[in-house]
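Input chain follows. Return structure tokens only.
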Amino acid sequence: MTRGQRPVRKRLVLVACILGSGVALVDGTVVNVALPTIQRSLGGGLAAQQWMVNAYLLTLGSLILIGGSLGDLFGERRVFAIGVGAFGVTSALCALAPTVGVLIAARALQGVAGALLTPSALAVIIATFHEQERGRAIGSWTAWSGIATVIGPLGGGALLNVASWRWIFLINIPLVALCLALILISVPRRPPGGSRPPIDWLGAALAAFGLGGPVFAFIEQPRLGWSSPAVVGPLIAGVALLVAFVVRERRARAPMLPLELFARRNFTVGNVETLAMYSGLAILLFFLVLFLQQVAGYTPLQSGLATLPITAVMLLFSRRFGALADRHGPRLFMGAGPVVAAAGMLLLLRVDARADYAGQILPALLVFSVGLAMTVAPLTAAVLADVPEDHAGIGSAINNAIARVAGLLGTSALGAVVAAQFAAGIHQRLPASSLDAPGRQAVTTATRLSLGRPAVSNLPSGERRRIDAAAVSASVHTFRVGMGVAASLVGLAGLMAAAGIRNPRRRVRAELCEGGALVGASPDAAGCPEPAQPAVAVGRA
């Protein structure tokens, strides 16, 4: 794949990559806003809601490394196109699902398709753009990727306002068709890699089942309890399989996860920051939308619109912060951005059952959004700048895998905490002895929601008010606990980056132009002749 392409063709390549990975990222969050609606249509409690989200993230996160390896071996264009096409097919399966079980299975298959297309999209960008252009291209890609992550609830809410929840999946099909057309038109073919080491299918299986065990345990624990063998067994087995996965990758001739990449400082620190940052982001989006609908009484459209400031701020500022990080180094932005985002999350601790948008939600999301915009482009660029170019596919796959695994573990682990907090809060506020049998049954049903108001219309008015007030109070407390945990994770991410990231060394070239000396500009961009003296390498702390 050549980088000497015309600007128009490069823009089409960038649009194709943004559209393809954007559709996959939207589907990671679009389901959040539809969960109460799907629950009413197909049934299921909190565990089913979590599986609708996590089945997708589980296969995406555990197989995305294989997707990156396939792109390096067989060409990013081919794997990208296959992944995009498969995503369209599996989206149709989700839309046609007759039961919760079928929908969860289709979501898992959708994640497999996402694992093919996501790392290939970024690898196509890296192979298409010159190093001097790459920072802005990646900034645009990450900006739109971040927007896609948070636009899901908005788009889903708008669709649910006028159509069935099934349209949140059907809408993918025309977008997939457009993306495939752009790939065929604009992305050049690249010969497959010369040597083709075997694909590490065993490593992929160990990763998938290793992640699946703890996720299953966290999701099912509120229903079964920590003493259940069905919870303890998968948890222990999953941890053991993850250890076996690391051992396997150390010894494999062609590992799915090249552990030697983690010897690179920025790559390692950046991925640790990704894990903490994206855990907090997933927790925020998942539980905020549920709280707004199930406690504060927002409609799906209103809860989707509530996240619009995140989209707007990302669109306005992510590319700019990517360019600033190119100029000044990523450490400042990777350190300060998460701290600002965490401050925004802490503002959500003021939210009460009314969830007043102007006074409580909007200021918090604006502060959070600025911090997120400061972080995403510099973070992605810093991680990939530390990867050899011939490992671009697997490098981007590792970072994407960690981001998806972060969301997977964040929502499932915190889901167990939230469920326990909510159940304890209701029982503390409503001793079982103070209720009659229908009231106790209503409370038991409410605890399965984790956040929300129970159905109490058939109860006497006094008992109805008591149960509703207790559920609302417990929901508010539980939501605040969740936001506090999320803020702690995100703030910790910033502190780790500030301590661990090193700005890369850059080449500073003095160029004599008519108006004076320009430092650090490329001759082509500045229109200046090459300087007579050699470039000097200058280290930046």
